[in-house]
Amino acid sequence: MPQTGTGSIARPGRRIGALLIDYVAATIIATGFLGYDQFALPGEAGLTQFAPMAVFAVLQILFIPTAGGSPGHRILGMRVVRLDGGWVGLWRPLVRTLLLVVVIPAVIWDADQRGLHDKAAGLVLIRA
What we know:
By secondary structure, the protein is mostly helical. The protein has seven helices and two strands, in the order ααααβαααβ. A two-stranded antiparallel ribbon has the order 1-2. α1 packs across α3. The two termini are 12 Å apart.
């Protein structure tokens, strides 16, 4: 892969920006359509406290195989691809998203700045 420009591995600034865009969108969807109340006290929220994270996961799982990345990825000019260039399929975005929701694999990178969640799924986030 090239070191810079189109096709290079996306750097942390873009990744974090995309994550914020996706999570804000998920929170807006959860608040507007699912009745999530972000200001409810912890005991009052019940299972709806997980609504934004569930919406976030659904956005990732649906958009990666169909649009090549989440809305945040696409807005910031990135794509999620397989290392061999093939279609990402359905199970890879699922594995990637489950590990992303756990958080730890996403914040641990290798020398190429690929998160463990991408490595485990055989994917890479590149600049489009």
